[in-house]
Amino acid sequence: MRLSITNVVVGSLALVSSTNAAVSQNCPGGGICYSLNIPDETATSGNGDIFFQISAPTTHQWVALGQGGQMAGANIFVMYSSANGQNVTVSPRRGVGHVEPEHDSSDTASITLLEGSGVNNNTMTANVRCSNCNSWNGGSMDFRSSNGQWIYAAKSGSPLESDDLNEELSVHDLHNSFTWDFTAAKGGNDVNPFLATATSNTTTTSTGGGSATPSNITSIMIAHGVMACLVFVILLPVGGMLVRLATFTGVIKVHIAIQLLAWSIFVAAFGLGAYMSDMGHITGNRHPIIGIIVFVLIVFQPIYGYLHHRLCKKTGRRNVWSFVHLTIGRIAIILGIINGGLGLALAGNASKGAIIAYGVIAGIFGVAYLAVAAFGEVRRAKSDKVKVEEQVSREKGQQESGLFQQNV
């Protein structure tokens, strides 16, 4: 293809401008790096284009960069691999609180994906020009100043491979905030500053590793999931079925021991979940919301159970605490089983085999528990009916005996 003199001149000027552009780079670790360039015109007026780059290994599902000191109100840019696995998708989103940020086409940053973006050598790269990043719904940033507050986040796992700007994101396992030195990023003209990769005026700093390392958060996530599943899929259903099916001496004591063990494990699992939820700013997600509801339901369940068994032992029949204890227990078990599936979906890194295994085991124990509970209620109703009939028969017999004595 022939190149005109104009093309050669423009290309040369672009290369010179890129070479002279100041680029400030922050690398939190794990192969993730963020780069920023503020052209001279933007640095002088405070308005205009800025350029940033997000780069990360394909061992991450997604990687994000955001303007602002916290998630709420932040101007966020999420990068993930495109559907064909060769390019990248950059989704502008607004941080609205401790929930997953969502793309809103009516209120997003004006960005352009530039040359040099894509997936190469197992690395995702997004070279981005933003034309209105000085102000957004929820915040602003003055590029005339010497620095600005930014946040970042990432999620390890298989690439998303999606072109959907509304793609659902699993909770991050790495995040932090940092102050970006704008003085090291100012310089150059309004052209792609990342085409010249080996510039002599690139300043690189480390932003730190986040509030928890991926390995630590993964261990916490696994512990939380295993403990919660053990409680709601096995221990609580088994304890509930045992007291309705078994007839050996001391069955009530065994039931109480199993349920107290399950309750203790759940309290610990809830603590781990609350820590991850707060750290990941996902308290608005349905999984932690249901977890909180279940915790509120069963936090006093041992007390309800004690009152239920104590009064039943005295009177031989159920009381108000019996219905409170039984109703809460059944609702908590059902919600807990459902929430386990939601937790696997939220984690985003569970294998298909693990999801299937959970579904099968939870389904078996859940159906068995409900069947035994129904069977227990039917059997109890029949037993109560027999007791009533026997009571009526005794009272009738006593009445007839009294009449006989009077006649004699």
Structure characterization notes:
- It is built from eight helices and 14 strands.
- The strands form three sheets. Strands 1, 2, 3, 7, 8, 9 and 14 form a seven-stranded mixed β-sheet that branches.
- It has helices at residues 5-20, 40-45, 214-245, 251-280, 286-298, 301-315, 320-347, 352-407; strands spanning 23-29, 32-37, 50-57, 60-67, 75-81, 88-94, 111-113, 118-120, 123-130, 135-136, 139-140, 147-156, 174-181, 202-205.
- Helix 3 packs antiparallel against helix 4, helix 5 runs antiparallel to helix 7 and helix 6 (301-315) runs antiparallel to helix 7 (320-347).
- It has two domains: 22-211, Cellobiose dehydrogenase, cytochrome domain (Immunoglobulin-like), CATH 2.60.40; 215-402, Four Helix Bundle (Hemerythrin (Met), subunit A).
- Strand 8 and strand 9 (123-130) form a beta hairpin.
- Residues 1-19, 197-201 and 209-214 have low confidence and may be disordered.
- With 408 residues, the protein is α+β, with helices and mostly antiparallel strands.
Instruction: Estimate the helix proportion, in percent.
Output: 40-55%
- Report the principal-axis shape: elongated
Q: List the helices and strands in order.
A: HEEHEEEEEEEEEEEEHHHHHH
For the largest beta-sheet, the strand count, sense and barrel status come to: 7 strands, mixed
CATH topology of the largest domain: Immunoglobulin-like
Structural class: alpha+beta
Report the radius of gyration as a whole number of Å.
Answer: 32 Å
Number of domains: 2
The CATH class name of the largest domain reads Mainly Beta
**In total, how many beta strands?**
14
Low-confidence stretches: 1-19, 197-201, 209-214
CATH superfamily of the largest domain: Cellobiose dehydrogenase, cytochrome domain
List the total number of helices: 8
CATH second-level architecture of the largest domain: Sandwich
